[in-house]
Amino acid sequence: MYDRAxxxxxxxxxxPRLGFAYNFAPKMVVRGGYGISYDFFNRVGSAIExxxxxxxxxxxxxQTIPAGGPVPSTFxxxxxxxxxxxxxxxxxxxxxSNVDYIPANSPWPYIQNWFLSLxxxxxxxxxxxxxxxxxxxxxxxxxxxxxxxxxxxxxxxLTYQQRAPVPAYGPIxxxxxxxxxxxxxxxxxxxxxxTGGLYFLNSFTWGVGIGDSEQALEYYAGYVExxxxxxxxxxxxxxxxxxxxRFNNVTSIVYELPVGKGRKFGAH
Length: 268
Description:
By secondary structure, the chain is mostly beta strands. It is built from 2 helices and 9 strands, in the order αβββββαββββ. It has one domain (2-255). The protein is 3% helix and 39% strand. The radius of gyration is 29 Å and the shape is elongated.
């Protein structure tokens, strides 16, 4: 398929699911599970769209309108700018164009999920449960500059292009499948069914989310995340994720109206 898609197919995506439940004591159950699932890269405005020349060209030119004066006859507008040859592939300049690079071997990201819980009935219509949940995401795509320049050595004065891996090119947007995210959470919940159709549930979670792959367009509004400062040192990017909500408590109260078939009112 490489000759048609420029990437090699990934035929090793095995996604098992395992689970168990065991009633090892009266009114007590232990449950557990493990699974692997796969995800695809779907990011609005992403480099995976392959916006490379000659299908997509970037042209740069500068022009001004004199203050208070008429618009020059040579001023380029949307209607006549293409007559300047800006879209001609022969004018492609890799130094001022954004080139995309997607490695031929780009396996699908995958997520390992696991959990273990202990549930016990502690009284009439009352159940408590303690559980551990975790996941590990690997091969997550990271958008980075493949042509990132190395720092100048002490006393050095090389230009940015002289320090770039490919000096003839400007930025090269790289879809690097190297991201690694982890989540671990401890949860406790209690539920009780009252008489008269009243139900109570309270769940508390203490969790930690850590990773190195979150970037622009991948988090909720109002949150700010920078791209990797050094794509060759992702260990330095590791830190709390945007979804790192340390403490989360949810209380639910449900009341079943005593109306309708089999209820106190309106049974007929």
